[in-house]
Amino acid sequence: MRSYLFRKLAFFFVISIGSLLLPGCFDIQEVDDLNIVLALGIDRTDNGLVQVTAQLVNPDAVPSAGGGESGSRGGQPFLIRDETGRSIEEAVEKFKADVPHRMYLAHNTLVVFGCDYAKQGLDRAFDYFERNRYFRRNQLFLVTPGQARDVLSAPSDPEPVNALGLRDLVEQIGEMFRVVDSRQLEVMKEYLSPSQAPVLSLVDRDATGHLLMKGVAVFCGPKMADVLTVEETKGLAWLLGDTRQVDIHLPCGSRGDGAESAVRLLTSRTKVIPRFGNNGVSFLVKVQARAEIDRLCPYERLTEKTYKQLEQKTAQYMEQQIQALVEKLQSDGVDACQFGTRLFIENPRRWRQISAHWPAYFARAQVRCNVRVHITRTALSSNTPESAASPNGLAPPAGRGVVTP
Amino acid sequence: MIIDKLRRTKRKDLWNDPARIASLVDASLSEPDEPLPASVEQLRSWVKAEWKNCDDFQLRDVDVHGTRGLLVWLRGLVDLARIEEGVLEPLAALQKRRPDMQQMASVLHTVRIRWIKTRQELNTAMSDGNVVLCADRSKSALVLDVSKPPVRAIEKADNEPTLQGPQEAFVEHLELNVALLRKRLRSPRMKVESMRIGVYTKTNVCIVYVEGIAKPTLVEEARQRLRKISVDGVNDINKLRELIGDAPYTLFPTTEETERPDRVTGSLLQGRIAIMLDGAPSCMMVPAQFIYFLASAEDYYTNYTLTLFIRILRHISYWSSLLLPSLYVSLLSYNQDLIPTPLLVSMVVQHRGIPFPAILEALVMMCIFEALREAGTRLPRAVGQSVSIVGTLIVGDAAVRAGLVSAGMVIVVAGTGVASFALPAYGFVNSSRIIQFAFVVVAGVFGLVGIVVLGLILVTHLVSLRSFGVPYMAPIAPFTWSDMKDMFVRSPWFETKRRPEQLEPVDRVSNRSPAPRPPNKPHSGEGQ
Q: Which of B156, B172, B174 is nearest to B262 (CA)?
């Protein structure tokens, strides 16, 4: 009995010593030996090389709630280092040589591509980011019209860390329409879909050097083709799917001296019905939206008629926007509105017949819009204050028995 | 002589016959079952030889109208006034000439008397604090219970305090403890079976159970296990527990201990049995399951709605008292990718400039915490408080300021301590105090993978345990749906109709009262 126990204990002893000495701790990486990479910028240099910019957390300057010793030393809460190489992999490898501590890529939140690099094609970058085991698939892919390095070193007050601020900006716009929320997973999905037209958010610095969300960049395959402003992006979003809380500004006409009324689309739902015709393809875009009034034209009274007018004007505006966008995309030859994918879903066999000539088909595709807007509420007040004011000191219209809708 | 006897006895037989061993090594010089000598003279010489060099041994000759008698007792254990009033005075007042023992017994004023025939019994009776009366011409002696053993007063349950509910606690006197139980279970169905354990101490041990509820084979199992014990003596319930426990090498307690009689009666009524020991201010309850250690007496004395929250909190705190430091270490040393980015940044900031790896930091902090806890328990109360102040100030604040440990680690270790304090069962908490070190070491060597593997081993071990034949994780594995009513939540009493299934009680139904509801018709108010 005793020998059995002894054997058991000896077994556990050997196992524990063995595990400590043989394989244990081989991949230990203490948290203070890490350079946490929050963002990568990828640019093309003039001589055709790739410049990778890494934004690292600067633990000495990160403001912490406790204050204490850290954080008081000042400086920027993030550091910028860059390397140049023939490929992204080579440049990232070079960080080992001249940045102390290990580059820790698992917390990378976004990748910014410079305009030059994006125009040349992102396919090599896609390969790297899809293959590497450290990256999370929810990192954002962004494009900037200038150099990625400049965007990554711009201040992003009040958020101390640039990368997190940048991500915040994109996600705030992304609450309205998901198309700007260009996570790696989404971008790869768009890239691999029949339309082969990924859409990446476009960020830049404004005149004061602060970060700015500028719209989206549309890609034809891996190559950047064109840029859409935020207004144009709304049209793209209505073509692609559901949106939330989108603002629409409408001119007031003759009475308003350039004043605008505004309508907020609470939600919109889109249905695209593709049709294969004899001579090409056509699409019927049906958009249904619910809206509330954000602002009325001056002196305007809210009646059934104005309600109807507003709804019509909004619908018209949206149709125009969509049509303008489709024309722009057709002239660019970029199927960012995923018409090809919709055709494929509708009838894969027919799609395969025409897919080889899809750019030609797309350029000639006919798009009809059918937008219906329903204004459900007026926010907190129904009329404009100046229409309710009475110089004679009369009671408000509702109190005088004037029927208001 | 003893060696000869031992030679003749095979080891296997000895193992199965503890009485035999006891007889071999018994302290008494005489043969155990030799009858008492008939004459007082012989008895006196024998008893004097037997109790030689025992200064507390007392002896008094009495002459009851021609019959010579002998009173023997041990000083300090008996009430002298009661000997005078209950024994000596009635004997002196006895009118009959040359009375025999029967006549003497009938006039005594002592409530409890008992006849004995052997020398062994005489020794035991004296040690229990009785007075033994022997007389000429009688083969048996009379044991008179005039004992007044030193007893502590019944006090509040200090180790298992509750705000509501009964407050009494057991004391070190078995009879009083049994009385505390009987006070709550006024039925002849509550059985108290006692036996003597310990060759020298001859300690009284009781098995208490409720006939008609407790499973008979369970009671028999307890009897068998207790009978096998042959030791010098048992001082405390823990020695008994280690001697009869199911899994001797496990860290988890397979018996439950309490100092609250109300808790014991509660579990007796569930179909468990209690084992009590003279001289121990606590009572052992078997079978014990994992979930009982996470339930407090308070759960049953407060509203069931609160219990829902508290129990879940307790389950969380148990697992966090096991896993919190190890998870922190593994996140800090291996699996940084699992932390949200802002948290990781703040951890890096905290950990900057600390010279030790996270595992070492954790182990040092945990050791210091355990040392503080031990110091706080053992020291007198007044000093204990200053220890805790010094501990929190120096270890907590100064160590962080000096840059020896990170503030996060202090929070984690302190949180682990608080979580373990939130558990009601002390013996159970001690197991997690040890296991958490194993988890930290494994986390420091293998990271999260190690924690998962060790967690699997731990769970496998837990489900392999049994307590008196009942699976340790009983209502969870094997799963019993009906027992879930008193598990993570406590359902209200009117819903709790059955005793726990895993104890296989004879009578399964404990509650036949209907659920409370308003009367069908509102009071009509007729006649007003």
A: B156
- Please name the member of B333, B344, B352 whose beta carbon is closest to the beta carbon of A70: B352
Chain A neighbors of B346, CB-CB under 8 A: 62, 64
* Per-residue pLDDT band at A64 (split at 50, 70, 90): low
State the CB neighbour count (10 A cutoff) for residue A172: 11
Residues B203-230 have pLDDT tens digits of 999 999 999 999 999 999 999 999 989 8
Burial B331-355 (b: 16+ CB within 10 A, else e): bbbbbbeebebeebbbbbbbbbebe
User: Which residues in chain A touch residue B333, judged by CB atoms under 8 angstroms apart?
Assistant: 28-31
Q: Specify whether A223 is located in the same domain as A369.
A: no
What residues make up the domain containing A392? 241-405
Nearest Cβ partner for A32 among B341, B346, B348: B348
Kindly state whether residue B282 falls inside one of the protein's structural domains.
Answer: yes
CA distance B349 to B400: 13
Query: Does B178 share its domain with B62?
Result: no
Same domain, B345 and B466: yes
Query: Which positions in chain A touch B457 (Cβ < 8 Å)?
Result: none
Domain boundary among B226, B253, B288: B288
Whether chain B has a CB inside 8 Å of the CB on A244: the answer is: no
User: Quick check: is A187 in a domain?
Assistant: yes
Which of B337, B354, B445 lies nearest to residue A107, judging by beta carbons?
Answer: B337
A162 Cβ neighbours under 8 A, 6+ residues apart: A38, A39, A55, A78, A152, A153, A154, A155, A156, A211
A368: enclosing H helix or E strand: strand A366-377
Residues 159-178 of A with CB under 8 A from B: 161, 164
Residues A154 and A183 in one domain: yes
Considering the domain boundaries, does residue A20 fall inside one?
Answer: no
Domain annotation covers residue A175? yes
> pLDDT by residue (tens digit) across B350-406?
888 888 889 999 999 999 888 888 887 888 877 777 777 777 777 778 888 888 888
AA letter at A58: N
Residue that is last in its domain, among A198, A228, A258: A228
**Eight-class DSSP state of A228:** E
Chain B hits for A20, CB-CB cut-off 8 Å, are 445
- Whether residue A19 is contained in a domain is answered as no
CATH of the domain at A303: 3.30.300.210
**Amino acid found at A66:** G
Contact B342 A109 (CB under 8 A): no
For residues B257 and B182, membership in a common domain is answered with yes
Q: Which of B417, B366, B320 is nearest to B358 (CA)?
A: B366
What pLDDT score does B29 carry?
46
Task: Pick the residue from chain A with its C-alpha nearest to B444.
Answer: A25
Judging contacts by C-beta atoms under 8 Å, the chain A residues touching residue B445 are 19-20, 24-25
Residues B339 and B462 in one domain: yes
Q: Is the pLDDT of residue A68 over 60?
A: no
Q: Test B337 with A57 for CB contact under 8 angstroms.
A: no
Q: Find out whether B423 and B318 touch, Cβ atoms under 8 Å.
A: yes
> Is the domain of B320 the same as that of B429?
yes
On whether the CB atoms of residues A338 and A351 are closer than 8 A, the answer is no
Which positions 123-162 of A are in contact with B (Cβ < 8 Å)? 134, 136, 161
A200 and A266 part of one domain: no
Side-chain-facing half-sphere of B65: CA atoms under 13 Å: 15
- Adjacent-strand bridge partners of B142: B115, B133
Residues 6+ apart with CB under 8 A from B52: none
Structure letter (DSSP) for residue A31: G
Residues B342 and B462 in one domain: yes
- The answer to whether the Cα torsion of A62, A67, A71, A74 is positive or negative is positive
Q: Are residues A203 and A251 in the same domain?
A: no
Rounded-to-integer distance, Cα B39 and Cα A80, Å: 108
